[in-house]
Amino acid sequence: MEKRIYADNAATTPVLPEVVEAMLPCFNTAWGNPSSMHADGQAAAELLTEARATVARLIGAQAGEIYFTSCGSESDNWAIKGAAHSAKQGRNKIITSKIEHPAVLQTCKTLEKEGFEVVYIGVDSQGILDLEELRAAADDKTALVAIMLANNEIGTIQPIKEAAEIAHSVGALAFTDAVQAVGSIPVDVKELGVDMLSLSGHKLGTPKGIGALYIRKGLRIRNLIDGGGQESGRRGGTENLPYIVGLAKAMEIAVERLPDTERIRALRNKLIDGLTAIPYSKLNGSRETRLPGNVNVSFEFIEGESMLLWLDIMGISASTGSACSSKSLEPSHVLVATGLPIEMAHGSLRFSLSHMNTEEEVDAIIAAVTEIVAKLRAMSPLYPGAPDNTVFVK
Ligand SMILES: *Cc1c(COP(=O)(O)O)cnc(C)c1O
User: Fold this and answer.
1) Which positions are catalytic?
2) Among 48, 254, 296, 328, which has the minimal tally of Cβ within 10 Å of its Cβ?
3) Given this structure, which CATH class describes domain 5-13+259-378?
4) Ligand 1 center to residue 179 CA distance, Å?
5) Which overall architecture, per CATH, does domain 17-256 show?
6) How do the domains of the chain map onto residue ranges?
7) What ranges make up the beta strands (E) of the chain?
8) How far is the CA of 72 from the centre of ligand 1 (A)?
9) Residue of 177, 294, 319 best suited for mutating to test ligand 1, as the one with most atoms within 8 Å of CB
């Protein structure tokens, strides 16, 4: 295969060679069951203990506060359903935002069917949470406030510390889906002040199928899987040790690479500038309060899917909407929540960069998109022609 440009790291990341390396002992020597008392089991148990301590330390938690799960979606489900089902009588309200990942939104829909009231807080035109609306919605009936730390489509970073304070001021719990944030920006559960936080390995260099949920010490929420006492008896099932060890390694590497963030941010800004120089385009999300690698731009008069196809042919992997919703014809709920007109929402492209991307790649993406947009607009019956300065939409 020719050398492709991978710019879809918000969908998933390639598995890091160092992660594969770190996982190998779990297949070759430490393949035992961590619950077994004998030496074979204890070799595995040691790796498990070490991995849990590492994951905890890297988000400012204690080892006993980390629960390994099978993915970010599982962590989100557990946090939200667990909090809802364990809430005191009379607390049957969940507050979340309109721009959450489907793992949060669909979980909330399920709870609505069970009789819970769910309030979906809006965002401004840059995709930033309306804290006043949250403050007005929070009351002594609220069990949980669930707001994502960073958005997967437009990269906006939310004021979680403030949201958690509002939750606690009414006696509710605070949960944040930090799947996109962990590995991209520093994340500290104490600084954020949240009671629960979810993360997922495959967004930062592990294979798909490993996640974790931070549950603050002393917090009682319903157990997820009844079983053999693993994960302090709260999520049974023999541990997926190779992936757990891989997750710890990937998080270590991500933290080591944080100094590289400035370079990624510069690439991101170059890409934003290059793409928004195309007429009839618009940056989605905030320019400043955004993940270092996220670029999301809408182009008028054309479809995201068509652009994506052409990019793919030209060897570039990107995304339109989110990977989970891009198979449907519905416009992105995130872009709609920012007030973007439906036509513009259909013409969006997301590029998510990592430490592996280079300036040459960014130049190639800008050149490719510029060419594709021109080509597609030339065929579009909607396109009014090159803009004069008066009708230039920005
Ligand atoms: C990817 C993602 C998830 C789901 O994680 P999985 O491990 O794929 O289940 C949840 N929330 C956000 C914000 C995500 O980007």
Assistant:
1) 324
2) 328
3) alpha beta
4) 6
5) 3-Layer(aba) Sandwich (3.40)
6) 5-13+259-378, 17-256
7) 5-6, 66-69, 93-97, 117-121, 142-146, 173-177, 196-200, 211-215, 281-283, 294-299, 316-317, 348-352
8) 5
9) 177
